[in-house]
Amino acid sequence: MSSSREAITFRANVQKALRDPMLREAIKRATDTFVTKRTEGIASLPMEEWREKASTIRMKVLDNLPQYVEQFCASAERAGAKVYQAVDAESARRTVAGILEDRGVKKVVKAKSMVTEEIHLNPCLQERGIDVLETDLGEYIVQLAAEAPSHILAPAIHKTREQIGKLFAEKLGVDYSDDPTVLTRVARNVLRTEFLTADAGITGANFAVADTGSLVIFTNEGNGRMVTTVPRLHVAVLTIEKLLPSVTDLPSFVRLLPRSATGQMLSSYVSVITGPRKPGDFTGADELHIVLLDNGRWEILKGEYREILKCIRCSACLNVCPVYRAIGGHAYDSTYPGPMGIVLTALLEGMERAHPVLDATTLCGACVDACPVKVPLVRLLCRLREASVEEGFAPLLEKRGMSAYGAVVSSPVMFAFGQTLARIFWPFAQKLSGYGPMSRIPRPVARAFRRRML
After folding, report:
1. How many domains does the chain have?
2. End position of a domain, from candidates 297, 329, 346
3. How confident is the model at residue 3, as a pLDDT?
4. In terms of residue numbers, what domain contains 262?
């Protein structure tokens, strides 16, 4: 799916992020916690065996996706849900808005959903006069701040508790506090009334089970269950690759997803929703509508980047990525940041817009090691970089510089001469660059390694 939007101003975004010490401290503190807890959470577990099994299941889905989509639609409708298939973001927005307007919905509460961020659902509904409130604590915070999420698991990861305290005091008229317990209680008191007065709830889904037509939602807050059980109408929006073949495949991901994301043995809540409320049920929505979104996935499935669709959105790759850990999510200027986000942004929004963000990786491979379903992110990133050059998006200076570098390093004599020049002129080059990349590159050694071996 291509985009006519202007290219991401990634380098400018990075400079802004690097000059924000509070942002960098907040990101470092949170990702350090996630990484430490994940390391502790997987200790002494057969993670390679679990990862291999999960990867196999996800590849089975991709290899047979049309079959599983058809099976899921039939199973969900037998269970009483209404299923819609949306080709793109516009059709998904139109479908959701139509469902809500037909039932006179004026207020919606939402659980955290990256796919509704992808299709920009909230602004669409608000333009139609429908009040939309995010109820995940992190999403609620960024909605109050009029910002986009900066992390696919922890939307407000870029904010310190002091900033959140000031935000609540300004927007909610409460006394300032930076105590997380107090701040959580403030949000809970506000949101509780909203749950009880909402006309509809909107969610995404972590997985959808083809053989039962079930939606599976992982949350660490009670808002997910409130959104799906208190309002009379539940609308779920999810992308086609979220399917699993059978409910018997679910335990593999119940084990893997929370451990990969936060180091937890289990998420606080795992909800399996199969159809609307049945006679005799005490909870559940009276109506369940499921919007299955393509938005470029079928096209991705046909090509060489298809394995990105194995991704289960655990955020493990973000937490270990040295680039993300330094700059946070907003610098990527995309719904999906981090290593998986770079790939998805390029494929969903087009190379014309996304090519600058291909620089946001060191290709160190930490993301591959952390991925619970073995998405080959480094291979995909390398191939996208090659495609960027092939499609003419590499800057002219960069292309000429790389050509010159290739010529020098292919000749032992030229390479040795270059090392000598570097030692002589490096101090002058660093002074001329000011606070640029060269100022942070180590000075060449006085005697090169190859000369020591002569």
Report:
1. 2
2. 297
3. 44
4. 45-297
For 229-247, the pLDDT digits (tens) are 999 999 999 999 999 999 9
The percent of residues in the chain predicted with pLDDT above 70, rounded, is 96
The CATH number covering residue 89 comes to 3.40.50.10420
Which is it for strands 243-244 and 207-209: parallel, antiparallel or unpaired? parallel
- Sequence-ordered list of residues with C-beta below 8 angstroms from that of 297, at least 6 positions apart, any chain: 239, 240, 241, 309
- Please name the residue ranges forming H helices in 303-395: 316-320, 322-327, 338-349, 351-354, 366-370, 377-390
Among 356, 311, 317, which residue's Cα sits nearest to residue 337? 317
Domain annotation covers residue 310: no
Quick check: is 427 in a domain? yes
Is residue 317 domain-resident? no
Helical spans, DSSP H, in 265-337: 297-302, 316-320, 322-327
Distance of CA 427 to the CA centre of its chain: 41
Picking from 325-329, 435-439, 444-448, which range would have the lowest pLDDT averaged per residue?
A: 435-439
Handedness of CA 339, 344, 349, 350 (dihedral sign): positive
d(CA 255, CA 47): 10
Query: Which tokens sit at 423?
Result: 């030692």
Tokens of 347: 């494929």
219, 225 contact by CB (below 8 A): yes
In a domain, 247, yes or no: yes
Q: Do 283 and 407 belong together in one domain?
A: no
pLDDT at 409 over 50: yes
Nearest to 95 by CA among 211, 237, 248: 237
> H/E/C letters for each residue in 134-201?
ECCHHHHHHHHCCCCCCCCCCCCCCCCHHHHHHHHHHHHCCCCCCCHHHHHHHHHHHHHHHHHHCCEE
Cα 362 to chain centroid, rounded: 19
Does residue 274 sit in the same domain as residue 418?
no
Quick count: other Cβ atoms within 10 Å of Cβ 425?
Answer: 12
Q: Which CA distances in Å does 407 have to 385, 387, 403, 419, 422? A: 21, 22, 6, 14, 16
* Residue at token pair 């949350």: 219
Rounded to a whole number, what is the largest CA-CA distance in the chain?
A: 85
Place of tokens 């508790």: 161
CB contact at 8 A, 182 and 170: no
Name the pTM for this structure.
0.90
Pair 342, 361: CB distance under 8 Å: yes
Boundary-marking domain end, from 265, 280, 297? 297
